[in-house]
Amino acid sequence: MNSNLKVIAGIGNPGEKYSSTLHNAGFWLVDEIASREKIEFSLEKRFDLQMCQVSLSGKDIWLIKPQKFMNLSGGPIGEFLRYFKIPTNEMIVAHDEIDLLPNTVKFKISGGHAGHNGLRDIIRHCDNDFMRIRIGVGHPGNKDEVIKYVLKNAKKSLRQDINKSIERVIRILPMIIQGNTQEAMKKLHTDISIKE
Question: What does the alpha-carbon distance between residue 120 and residue 177 come to, in Å, rounded to a whole number?
């Protein structure tokens, strides 16, 4: 697989109303990367997304946040990728994952949407060959409560756990950028030291 990373897309819901909700964990990751690089996002209306470019491990990486609701993320992302002629497999999509416990994060290369409507729409507009950062937010315990759960503001302790996951992702990003995806996956999933 070509792991020449060019784009990290965080997906979530736009607007202040949703900024602290669990569904926005993907936004939180790209926001943190931009903040550490002291770069601000700007709205690009032709793509309907916020975007900026940062230099990570000596490479220019786009950070993007679609400004349509989560379930419509694929349109803006597809337009962006086609405009810049970026293959789907040179993108990571960061998203919330109810099937993972808080303080758990997984790196995955391609695959299906597993019921995640944001991923479903990206696959519909692009393909499924993108990398994913699955940020665990926990499950409410009842499938009928899932929508309400991911659209509520994260409790302080839960946000702290998610922030730890984001920190771990940022630590392994250089490996991914350098093309060492399997090493990055192993480090993220098995190295206890990176969980501290």
Answer: 25
Is residue 92 within 8 Å of 133, Cβ to Cβ? yes
Provide the CATH number for the domain around residue 121: 3.40.50.1470
> How sure is the predictor about 106, in pLDDT bands with cuts at 50, 70 and 90?
very high
pLDDT at res. 3:
57
Number of domains composing the chain: 1
Residue 173 tokens read as: 């990003």
> Alpha helices of 84-139 — where are they, by DSSP H?
117-125
pLDDT over 50 (residue 2): no
pLDDT digits (tens, 9 = 90+) for 79-96: 999 999 999 999 999 999
Active site residue 23: yes
Instruction: Report how far residue 74's alpha carbon sits from residue 152's, in angstroms, rounded to the nearest whole number.
Output: 23
**Cα–Cα distance for residue pair 173/39, rounded to 1 Å:** 17
Residue 101 lies in a domain: yes
In a domain, 196, yes or no: no
- Average pLDDT for residues 105-130, to the nearest whole number? 85
Q: Domain range for residue 67? A: 7-173
In a domain, 12, yes or no: yes
Rounded CA-CA distance 74/77 in Å is 5
Rounded to the nearest 10°, the torsion over CA 112, 90, 93, 12 is -120
Would residue 188 count as lying in a domain? Answer: no
This prediction's pTM:
0.92
Q: Does 52 have pLDDT greater than 90?
A: yes
Residue in 23, 113, 116, 189 annotated catalytic:
23
